């Protein structure tokens, strides 16, 4: 086979930055391939250049991994021993002479005596700023209607103007009401259970969503009051004694014989029937008998899992 070829290319410190500037001008920026900050002030001796050698080597390796640079004549000339020596020397800026600046600027200010300083300052600022690189091909950005609508609904001035859940993306063939949203309060919990577990029809879900702003706070205040009253009744002394006794008998009672398989099946059937009868008839008329059976079956099977029971 052919032996691998080896050659040496000698490049100056600033030539790497000229290469980066020209690649940015013709191909745009490469986020994963960046040179370290250019040292303008200070000596560039052997120790300094040696410390930057690995970073420059890594920069070139990452450039060679980009497919769009596989046919780049600019990169090929930079790595070729006889190619393009002058094109990387044209844009090399001379080192900044701080002593000259320190001497010339006060002299300019004294000469002008405080007059006509604004054009001088603007020209001085422009001379210090490097020109912004321009990509060779202008980018065409097409904004989708969704992004335009999000700009109107979410902005810095009006914040969440439509009170929508953030980070929700509508997908094709996806129910809008099944999108990810934050649940707050009993009203939202009941709507979620009704939609996911009991599979309420769309018209009922739309109606509940429309009346949410009217009845949400009222229902939650009533629920808080109802739970507060029930907990006060439950925490009375004679009721606590009864609950503790039942808990003791259920956990520590050793005289109870284990139930047979028939007893377990009979009790499970009785529990399922009582759960079916617990649903009000009005809800059954809205969701239908089949949805009622499937939802109760889902709840019943979920409660039979040993992990959930623990």
UniProtKB/TrEMBL annotation:
Provide the species name: Balaenoptera physalus
- GO CC terms of this entry: late endosome
What's a GO biological-process term for it?
Answer: autophagosome maturation
Highest taxon above the source species: Eukaryota
SUPFAM superfamilies, per the entry: PX domain (SSF64268)
> Per its UniProt record, what InterPro entries does this chain match?
PX_dom, PX_dom_sf, SNX14_PX, Sorting_nexin_C
What name has this protein been given in UniProt?
Answer: PX domain-containing protein
Q: Outline the extent of the PX domain.
A: 1-86
Pfam families attached to this UniProt entry: Nexin_C (PF08628), PX (PF00787)
- A GO molecular function for this record? phosphatidylinositol binding
């Amino acid at each position: 086979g052919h032996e691998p070829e080896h050659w040496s290319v000698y490049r100056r410190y600033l030539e790497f930055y000229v290469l980066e500037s020209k690649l940015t001008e013709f191909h745009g920026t490469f986020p994963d391939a960046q040179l370290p900050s250019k040292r303008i002030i200070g000596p560039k001796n052997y120790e300094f250049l040696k410390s930057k050698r690995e970073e420059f080597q890594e920069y070139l390796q990452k450039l060679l991994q980009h497919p769009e640079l596989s046919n780049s004549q600019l990169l090929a000339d930079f790595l070729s021993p006889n190619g393009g020596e002058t094109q990387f020397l044209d844009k090399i800026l001379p080192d900044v002479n701080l002593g000259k600046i320190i001497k010339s600027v006060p002299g300019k200010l004294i000469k002008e005596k405080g007059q006509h300083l604004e054009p001088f300052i603007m020209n001085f600022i422009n001379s210090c700023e490097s020109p912004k690189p321009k990509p060779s091909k202008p980018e065409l950005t097409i904004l989708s209607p969704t992004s335009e609508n999000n700009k109107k609904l979410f902005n810095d001035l009006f914040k969440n103007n439509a009170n929508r859940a953030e980070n929700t993306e509508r997908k094709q063939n996806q129910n809008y009401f099944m999108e990810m949203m934050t649940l707050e309060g009993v009203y939202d919990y009941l709507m979620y259970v009704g939609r996911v577990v009991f599979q309420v029809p769309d018209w009922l879900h739309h109606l509940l969503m429309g009346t949410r702003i009217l009845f949400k706070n009222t229902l939650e205040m009533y629920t808080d009051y109802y739970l507060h009253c029930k907990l006060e009744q439950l925490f009375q002394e004679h009721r606590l004694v009864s609950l503790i006794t039942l808990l003791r008998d259920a956990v520590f009672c050793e005289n109870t014989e284990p139930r047979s398989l028939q007893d377990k099946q009979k009790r499970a059937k009785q529990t399922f029937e009582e759960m079916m009868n617990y649903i009000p008839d009005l809800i059954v008329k809205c969701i239908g008998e089949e949805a009622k059976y499937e939802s109760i079956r889902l709840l019943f099977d979920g409660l039979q899992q040993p992990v959930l029971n623990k």
